[in-house]
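Query structure, 375 tokens:
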């Protein structure tokens, strides 16, 4: 199960994030069979990726005998030991929703163009699409609003595709994929995760304390019964015993479930050596020829690219960057476990928000516009 979720989020190390069909092909090609020894199918994998049971919430009484879904109010949720942590499960649900053809065209998901789905015109906010010239010898990113509705909708611009692709990749290599820069950017995210783990440990300790106190009270009641001080036939005493048992059992169950989630999230420290390995591998992979993993890896580093007169703005998410860093399928540098930060030098971030808005000023005003940007 964990392998299927890992393939969906991070791929197999040679390709980017995998859709359901590619996961099925990977499992069958590598002779990873089902529990009954059969081959995998699309429906089976999709059910595994969407079933809440694997993250600790088994839904019971979901359908009528006619197989129709019951109202949400009638569904019973039973806590079970989790296999996948909630963060991973939620990330997969977002990914499946984003990949749905009704949300994102298949060309954006599987197309070979590096910046498809990421690049936007800074003037109007519209997406930029591909146009060709000279019989297909030249390819440009152009503002879709201008292409569809003319210059009255947006003045727009056209940018040579190969030059912009190289510019974005080079800027990520030089400015983002450096160990010191990664340390600065990720410090606050890692600190928040560490604080969340500490709160979880405090919560588990409180649950264990509650269970121990209930157990002690029960023992005192049993001692009183044995000494003849309390009457076992007293209805109030029975209710008291039943209530303490319920509190003890619930606290123990909640503590075990919280402990399982905490252990699944792990506590691996991130070191500069790990950051160096990740940065080195990522720099190599965003230079791979063609689409595929190169495009998916770049999308993990940057989620939006805006082209304006004189500059390109590259924006991304710290959380998404951290997911890529820790993924087995990302750079094979760090296990897919939860993390804590091992401080070295200054851990205060220079950018309080996401690492949004790297401004690529390689589009020097007027000096390179004639050869790089065609309006």
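Result returned for the query:
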């Amino acid at each position: 199960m964990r392998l299927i979720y890992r393939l969906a989020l991070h791929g197999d190390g040679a390709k980017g994030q995998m859709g359901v069909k590619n996961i099925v092909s990977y499992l069958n090609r590598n002779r990873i069979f089902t529990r009954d020894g059969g081959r995998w199918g699309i429906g089976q994998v999709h059910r595994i990726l969407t079933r809440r049971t694997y993250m600790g919430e088994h839904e019971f009484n979901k359908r009528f005998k006619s197989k129709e879904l019951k109202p949400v109010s009638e569904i019973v949720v039973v806590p079970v030991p989790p296999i996948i942590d909630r963060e991973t499960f939620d990330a997969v649900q977002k990914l499946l929703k984003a990949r749905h053809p009704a949300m994102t065209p298949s060309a954006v998901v599987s197309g070979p163009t590096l910046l498809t789905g990421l690049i936007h015109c800074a003037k109007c906010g519209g997406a930029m699409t591909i146009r060709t010239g000279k019989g297909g010898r030249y390819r440009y990113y152009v503002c879709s609003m201008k292409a569809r509705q003319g210059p009255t909708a947006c003045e727009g611009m056209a940018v040579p595709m190969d030059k912009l692709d190289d510019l974005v990749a080079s800027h990520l290599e030089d400015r983002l994929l450096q160990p010191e820069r990664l340390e600065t950017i990720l410090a606050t995210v890692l600190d928040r995760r560490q604080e969340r783990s500490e709160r979880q440990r405090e919560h588990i300790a409180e649950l264990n304390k509650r269970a121990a106190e209930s157990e002690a009270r029960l023992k005192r009641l049993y001692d009183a019964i044995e000494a003849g001080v309390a009457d076992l036939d007293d209805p109030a005493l029975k209710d008291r015993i039943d209530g303490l048992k319920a509190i003890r059992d619930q606290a123990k169950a909640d503590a075990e479930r919280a402990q399982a989630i905490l252990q699944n999230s792990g506590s691996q420290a991130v070191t500069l050596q790990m950051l160096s390995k990740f940065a080195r591998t990522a720099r190599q992979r965003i230079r791979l020829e063609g689409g595929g993993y190169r495009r998916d890896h770049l999308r993990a580093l940057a989620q939006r690219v805006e082209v304006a007169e004189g500059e390109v703005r590259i924006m991304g998410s710290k959380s998404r960057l951290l997911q890529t860093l820790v993924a087995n399928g990302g750079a094979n540098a760090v296990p897919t476990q939860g993390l804590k930060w091992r401080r070295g030098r200054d851990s205060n971030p220079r950018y309080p928000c996401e690492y949004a808005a790297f401004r690529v000023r390689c589009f020097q005003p007027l000096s390179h516009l004639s050869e790089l940007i065609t309006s």
